[in-house]
Amino acid sequence: MKHDIQPIAPLKKVSLEVSAGKRPSGTELMEPAPVEFIFGLGKAGLTPLERQIEGRAAGDCRSIEVSRSYIPEFFGHIFPFPMKLKIPLDPFYLNLKIISVDPADPRAVVRAMAEIAACSGCDCGCGGHF
Q1: Higher-confidence position of 3 and 72
Q2: Could you give the CA distance from residue 79 to residue 67 in angstroms, rounded to a whole number?
Q3: In degrees rounded to 5, what are phi and psi of residue 24?
Q4: Partner of 15 for a Cys bridge, out of 38, 61, 88, 100, CB 3.0 to 4.6 A?
């Protein structure tokens, strides 16, 4: 049975591999690390990260030049990943590889929404407004 390629869209579970480098596709600043989240749940709409990958599918890659000061806004509620991203170079390249895009389990959606709603004072970029 052939599987349809699923594009990233609201309520899809997205698995990424994120690295950082001095150049596009570089990993000298941060080795690839997994990030998993449900797309489109942010109270303030899509995060800049989500806008960069919307409509893309598993296997796609992006390299984005990012300023260190933009990291909290870029990731928004997709926490705790920004806390792990301690990059000394400014700007640097954030490299994203989409590993998988799957329908999100309804229970996982409710759990993720509850986590976002409970967020306050955590330096995740939400400003304690969720």
Answers
A1: 72
A2: 18
A3: -55, 140
A4: 100
